[in-house]
Amino acid sequence: MSGSQWLSGVPRIESQNYDDRPAGSALNAIVLHYTAVDDDISLRALTKKQKEIPPVSAHFLITSDGTCHQLVPLNARAWHCGKSNWKGQESLNSSSIGIEIVNDGFSPFHPTQIETLKQILRQIFDVTGLGPEAVAGHQDISPDRKIDPGPHFPWEELEAEGLVAQQDIEPLMRLWTKGPLSKNREKIEKAMNAFLRKTPEGETELKEMLLQLGYAVHLYGMTHCLRACIVRNLKRFA
């Protein structure tokens, strides 16, 4: 990665919460999150040291009105992933770029936020050489404890514009017997668990599919990884 570590035209509010990437670490992921809190709390949490919680940060914050702020330079390590594993890479803070989007987890993302995200992804691709295959959700890299950016995030819209690589889930679609899914988390969980109970013969095939997609099934288990995959591809189960 060369050139400025601050994207051109993106307002800068430098966070107190970051450090250097380890020597020799190479960027391999762009991780998408929702904040679960409002603009003011999100900005404060991501830029200031807090007595109540461990310090957190991300490279970018997209607020409720679609404004994007860069908080951490691209060549620095932000603290947004925690324990994580994706495509064989552990501890993704060291090798990823984090984008936080203000959303409560239960509501649709505003179209302006998604348009801003598209612009930021294109700029990141241009500057870093990363591409659509590098984009993941926090639910993908830490499926045992995270659910963001959640069932309301429009993955299919980013896929249609070539900004996210569509996952090949043919085995799952072929074996799925539970009908359409809503965006209700409890209903997704219930349908998925019922599906797994009735399709033990497909478990090996599903495990191989998840491993090929990058999920750390050996660490997080089939149930957590399959949930993340289903939520990411929810539109295909409509």
Please provide a written account of the structure:
This protein has a five-stranded mixed sheet with strand order 4-3-8-2-9, with helices on both faces. The protein has a two-stranded antiparallel ribbon with strand order 1-5. Strands 6-7 form a two-stranded antiparallel ribbon. It has two domains: 18-160, 3-Layer(aba) Sandwich (Lysozyme-like); 170-237, no CATH class. α6 packs across α8 (217-232) and α7 packs across α8 (217-232). The protein has helices at 39-47, 111-128, 138-141, 155-160, 170-175, 185-198, 203-213, 217-232; strands spanning 18-20, 29-34, 60-62, 68-70, 76-78, 85-86, 89-90, 96-101, 135-137. By secondary structure, it is α/β, with parallel strands linked by helices.
Brief write-up:
The protein has about 240 residues and is α/β, with parallel strands linked by helices. Helices cover about 35% and strands about 15% of the residues. It has 8 helices and 9 strands.
Separation, N- and C-terminal Cα atoms: 40 Å
| Rg calc | 18 Å
What average pLDDT do the residues reach? 94
CATH class identity of the largest domain? Alpha Beta
- Portion of residues within helices: 25-40%
Largest sheet: 5 strands, mixed
> What would the CATH topology of the largest domain be?
Lysozyme-like
Residue ranges: pLDDT <50 for 5 or more in a row? none
